Amino acid sequence: MNYAAHSFCSRKSRGPAVMSVQPREDAEKPGRRSDEQHKSPKSDIEISQAAKMRPILDVAADKLDIPAEDLIPYGHYKAKVSLDYIASLSNRPDGKLILVTAITPTPAGEGKTTTTVGLGDALNAIGKKAMICIREPSLGPCFGVKGGAAGGGYAQVVPMEDINLHFTGDFHAIGAANNLLAAMIDNHVYWGNKLDIDTRRVTWRRAVDMNDRALRSIVSSLGGAANGFPREAGFDITVASEVMAIFCLASDLADLQRRLGQIQIGQTRDKKPVTAKELSAAGSMAALLKDALAPNLVQTLENNPAFIHGGPFANIAHGCNSVIATKAALKLADYAVTEAGFGADLGAEKFFDIKCRKAGLTPSCVVLVATLRALKMHGGVAKDDLKKENLQALEKGFANLERHVGNVKKYGVPVVVSVNRFSSDTEAELALVKRLCANLGVDCVLADQWAQGGEGAVELGRTVLRTIEATPSKFKPLYPDDMSLWDKTRTIAKEIYGASDISADKSVKDRFAELEKEGFGKFPICIAKTQYSFSTNPDAKGSPSGFTIPIREVRLSAGAEFVVVVCGDIMTMPGLPKVPAANSIELAADGRIAGLF
């Protein structure tokens, strides 16, 4: 049995978490204050560092009946579940799949991952066997502005610092595999270029898991003949790499290697595609990813099991955790609770039209997360004024939630609205949102998992169970496989975004036609665009309509088996903000991390 050396040295000093503690009233987090219960406010990291974790071998045995010999521990509190064991689950029946998504994100916060964790804990608390499946955090947003992806308050997965910083090394393996292919391309050209690769048409980019705008466009191989042939190149953030998408959509090791071989890295001088298989790169790339492909098992603050595996962004990739982890959770539990990135127009659409289509998944229910603060911001309220009651702005901003509800219903999946409660929410505002949701024919549940853990999401859990029982899912993708790529893109733009049409110059339209001719017309579409609006204008809040979606570029992801349509000003390599989160992170002499959320 292999043991990784990475283990947090100060776990023994941590005491048990107190699940009834409430946050301070003025915190930028959901919850209600109770001065008698909570004199000293706690941050997410303080709460996680106070958690009493169980050895992951015990969690696996007690909650999932996984034998110790089928786990590969990474210290005491993290482990990978062997692919052989996962393959042995194939004859078990599937549980119910619950997707957690959200309204269009705002700086006011929505709390999608917190709701995912809280709902999983709540289902376990009421006697159901439930498992959480979420994505691994990227270092880019951890050190940038968005933060980590381990939940918050008393609805977190732990060990939180490990999960947000390196974890089990999966992202490093994905970056290494991506860059191995890049190195093999340049090396092939250097040693004679037998495949006749046109270096002007190399489309494969390098990757690094960090926000670094300086690497978006570079010139490589400078310094003389010994360093190769200079050419224009660039970097994407690792979560935007096609290798990440392949990693999350592969069904097993054989499928992983097959997909890696299909990657198109560019063209020859005769404009014929060149693949990773032709460069003999697929095998070595798969070897780098062999251990990473096994899903990572951790636990919540309430010691319930969670898979955290894979992590493509939904604004530039397909935004879902790995198919392997999701399918394994459906075999191991009666309910698998997963999430899709950003708002439902991006993450949920790609979850339905790419992941479910490709993996044969049928979601039973969708939980759509919102906060009254975010809805008021969509109604035109400035962030500094969000604590003030404003029914008019709330009703105006509700149009954003209404469109997301309508979009989810187009897939035939029942939906429940979950409102993360903040201390500044008023009874009149809460009553208004409940009434508006009732007019849409959906249940609206107030959730308080940030402050109360699973206990605060019990009503949500019961509502989800009732919904699954009363309204069977009639899931179907938005568009058929045999629709043209252009029409698939237009369908998403019109049906999900509310656009009047899409637009593109001749070169982009020609590229769509080329892909059809080359046999990729049945692939689904993965739109890359801003997450902050239904449109490509990040400042267009609420529920804009009648706009045109401009298509800037089309990229083939032959290994992931979808077509990426880049719209507006979206970047596949983000930059750091003026004051990045990295400025506030410190390491104490005893090894404790401070300032990490």
Outline the secondary-structure elements.
Elements: H1 44-49, H2 56-64, E1 71-73, E2 79-81, H3 83-87, E3 96-102, H4 112-125, E4 130-134, H5 139-143, E5 151-152, E6 155-158, H6 160-164, H7 170-190, E7 197-202, E8 206-208, E9 218-220, E10 231-233, E11 235-237, H8 242-249, H9 253-262, E12 264-268, E13 273-275, H10 282-289, E14 296-300, E15 305-308, H11 323-332, E16 335-339, H12 344-359, E17 363-370, H13 372-378, H14 391-409, E18 415-420, H15 427-440, E19 444-447, H16 449-452, H17 458-470, H18 485-497, E20 501-503, H19 506-517, E21 525-528, E22 548-557, E23 562-567, E24 586-587, E25 593-594
Parallel strand pairs: 3-16, 3-17, 4-15, 4-16, 8-11, 17-18, 18-19, 20-22, 21-23
Antiparallel strand pairs: 1-2, 2-14, 5-6, 6-14, 7-12, 9-10, 12-13, 14-15, 22-23, 24-25
Helix pairs in contact: 4-17, 7-8, 7-10, 9-10, 13-14, 14-15
